[in-house]
Amino acid sequence: MGSLQDFRKDFDILNSGDYVYFDNAATSQRPRQVLDAVTNFYKTTNANPLRGLYDWSMGATEAYENARSTVADFIGASRAEEIIFTRNTTESLNLVAYSYGMENVHEGDEIVVTVMEHHSNLLPWQMVAKKNGAKLVFLEPDEEGVITKEEYESKITDKTKIVAVGHVSNVFGITNPVKEIAEYAHSKGAIMVVDGAQSTPHMSVDVQAIGADFFALSGHKMLAPMGIGALYGRYELLEKMQPFLTGGEMIEYVTRTDATYAEIPHKFEAGTVNAGDAVGLAAAIEYIKSVGFDKIEEQELKLTKLIMEGLAKLPYIKVYGSKDYRKHCGIVTFTMEGVHPHDMSSVLNDDHVCIRAGHHCAQPLMQFIGAGSTARASVYFYNTEEEVAVFLDKLSKVREVMGYGA
Amino acid sequence: MELKQLYREIVNEHNLHPVNRGKIEDADLVLRGVNPSCGDDITLYMKLDGDVIKAASYDGSGCAISQASVDMMVDQILGKNKEEAIKLAGTFMGMIKGEITDEESIEALDEAAALQDVAHMPARVKCAVLGWHTMQEMLEHPEKAQENK
Ligand SMILES: Cc1ncc(COP(=O)(O)O)c(C=O)c1O
């Protein structure tokens, strides 16, 4: 065992120099197996999937559809057709907002989101609410970052048509009680949309157990290439929805003035699909399974504990969200007294430590916690204790660089 | 100059001990400048005597580079006329974008020329130019800068 070091060897970029990469919540790195799978697709069976009647095209179609099954299986969908390939979480959520939201939310209805949503799970709902005269209602967390039962039971009502919640917050790292919220939402006749961008890399997900009607994910946060993501949608809902984009590949029959649409999922995949990266996503899922979520979690917990213990020793650092390192999903967001996060990140970059600084595409949350901008360190299973030590050491020297004492 | 040296030798002094920070209550021109992506947010105040900048100051918040840069900028524009200040802004922004490199032009910026190396830090360019950009906007479009008063 002790094989995490072996897995790390698969990531050329991590072994290419002395950089400490702690911005995994923004995007992960990719192992050689994923890159090879994509290259291999183009080397061996590339043709336009779903269109040709010859071997290569059929091979490409098969690879693409196998990838769909792999994703379906990975998140517990009941059938492969419930998986629609998209570019990323943002596109997945926009698909739901346009094809479901615009049709099913009416004047006087309410859409419930949390104040900690990524802009990707906020702006599409703002748009639906504005266009259709509905109201956006915000669930707010307590000091530990928790959305309590009282909070969601008081704000989800008979007027609520859609509840859209991030599974794991990209700022607090907290896992929201999506299963409980979904159950309550359903009891009020609303549907549940879950933004799984930050959960899928770190934990085993079962969309049916959660009770998600829609679930969005991004491949690039879970070892897959950029530009491939997925939307899970409950079959009955997808069947009734209108297409998001129209054009080639998503039709059944077209005349000069009219068209009937293909069956799901193809109805929602207009134009030539991204089969190469879908194959990459399937390879990423196989890779994650070979590491195992138990090992992934164990390593993330170990590193998060070290980071939070180290930060606690620096009196000028304030950490946001839960005090319990087990509730951070590898994400630690913090500020340093007197030092702007951008300066902190630039100084750390000089020491080859990569962390995120800014509003993390969650400005309403920044306003809610009263910080204009914060710094965020986020780890994945391939990070090491040595890297945490380097990060903490370099971080402890930032204030001196910024002119505070010696 | 490398980044840490830039902070230690130039930026920290103006960031931690600014000389031009504050609000001018009876300013003729007031304009807010924001970098939405990083949250730098300043307000610039100016008093004019005809065409000449008689007093200027700023307040707000942001990273050290944005704050130090605007503090240095105010030093450079005091006593200049509008046209000269706008020209200096053009020089500063040209320098930061790496388009102006000849020493003679850059010397006109006096102490603000010390930020030249930000040209090699693409992530920080917006921070360095915020104050200058806001000042240029204020002088070229005074109508915008009066609504805010
Ligand atoms: C919680 C959350 N939702 C949505 C997104 C958007 O993902 P993408 O940019 O891949 O669409 C992100 C990542 O940036 C995220 O962290």
Could you please describe the fold and organization of this structure?
The complex is a heterodimer of chains A (406) and B (149). Helices cover 40% and strands 16% of the residues of chain A. Chain A has helices spanning 4-8, 32-44, 55-75, 89-104, 123-132, 149-155, 178-187, 207-210, 235-240, 275-291, 293-312, 341-350, 363-369, 385-395, 398-401, and strands at residues 20-21, 83-86, 110-114, 135-139, 160-166, 191-195, 214-218, 229-233, 251-254, 259-261, 317-319, 331-336, 353-354, 356-358, 374-378. Chain A folds into two domains: 4-22 and 292-401, Alpha-Beta Complex (Aspartate Aminotransferase, domain 1); 34-288, Aspartate Aminotransferase, domain 2, CATH 3.40.640.10. Chain A has a seven-stranded mixed β-sheet, sandwiched between helices. Chain A has a four-stranded antiparallel β-sheet with strand order 11-12-15-14, covered by helices on one side. With 406 residues, chain A is α/β, with parallel strands linked by helices. Chain B contains six helices and three strands. A three-stranded antiparallel β-sheet of chain B has the order 1-2-3. In chain B, helix 2 (64-77) runs parallel beside helix 5. The longest helix of chain B is centred in the C-terminal third of the chain and has 16 residues, at 125-140. Chain B has a single domain (3-147), classed as Sufe protein. Chain: A. By secondary structure, chain B is an alpha+beta fold. In chain B, strand 1 (29-35) and strand 2 form a beta hairpin. Chain B has helices at residues 3-16, 64-77, 82-96, 103-107, 125-140, 142-147; strands spanning 29-35, 40-49, 52-61. Classes of the chains: A alpha/beta (406), B alpha+beta (149). Chains A and B meet through helix 12 of A and helix 1 of B. The structure holds pyridoxal-5'-phosphate. Residues 88-90, 118, 120-121, 166, 170, 195, 197-198, 218, 220, 361 of chain A line the site of pyridoxal-5'-phosphate.
